[in-house]
């Protein structure tokens, strides 16, 4: 396993743990830091392992950093009844 893939696994674990904090303050700051670290990491993975592995890791990172699925339900509770 190349060093870039080891770093990618560490990044994915950190992103997963950050996703567990979705409702807590500071979540978006951590997500921004993960994005800032993930972009160059994606390039490094692509250089060391080829474009298909790089694309696979980019998609894995995008799936981990998606919008929390419970967020739309929270927004509906803030609306007055009947809207």
From TrEMBL:
<dbReference type="Pfam" id="PF10658">
    <property type="entry name" value="DUF2484"/>
</dbReference>
<dbReference type="InterPro" id="IPR018919">
    <property type="entry name" value="DUF2484"/>
</dbReference>
<keyword id="KW-0472">Membrane</keyword>
<protein>
    <recommendedName>
        <fullName>DUF2484 family protein</fullName>
    </recommendedName>
</protein>
<keyword id="KW-1133">Transmembrane helix</keyword>
<keyword id="KW-0812">Transmembrane</keyword>
<feature type="transmembrane region" description="Helical">
    <location>
        <begin position="49"/>
        <end position="67"/>
    </location>
</feature>
